[in-house]
Design a protein that fits this description.
Aminopeptidase; five-stranded mixed sheet; 5 strands; about 35% helix; alpha+beta; about 150 residues; 4 helices; globular
């Protein structure tokens, strides 16, 4: 049985291992300070939020999300699902679906008008799940990195 819940301090090490797996999956390397800063934000639970999925008593998936205003829906925020990762040995068991459902439920309860996310075009495994749960509206993402 998969359970999804807010992360607690005792999840810190398992969360970081999963988040490092997510970062590595996308071919990135981030400094330790990034993980520290993200964890502080999740503990505060005001600007950025995190949930974890447990399977057989073990944290096997994480999701990070935030809300922001939308010009097309000025009376309701939208929810951006920023990071989603499931431990490789837990994939195909409903963990990703449970995490997306939990974010959608959270967003609905907080008055958001929609939930959206991005993934790489080549991420075929995840896209099968995403195509079953959401509409691909055809947008392509562009990015300009600014100096930190």
């Amino acid at each position: 049985m998969i359970s999804v819940r807010r992360l607690v301090p005792s999840d810190r090490a398992a969360w970081e291992e999963l988040f490092r797996g997510y970062i590595a999956f996308y071919g990135r390397v981030e400094p330790d300070e990034m993980y520290e800063g993200a964890w502080r934000e999740f503990e505060a639970d005001t600007r950025i939020h995190a949930l974890g999925a447990e399977l057989d008593g073990r944290l096997v998936g994480i999701v990070h999300f935030l809300t922001h205003p939308s010009t097309s829906m000025p009376d309701a925020d939208v929810c951006y699902l920023q990071d989603l990762f499931t431990e490789p040995d837990a994939r195909g068991r409903g963990v990703g679906r449970a995490l997306i459902t939990a974010v959608t439920d959270w967003a609905r309860a907080h008055g958001c008008s929609r939930v959206y996310w991005h993934t790489q075009e080549s991420n075929a495994t995840a896209r099968r799940l995403y195509d079953a749960m959401a509409e691909n509206n055809g947008f392509i993402r562009y990015q300009i990195d600014l100096a930190r």
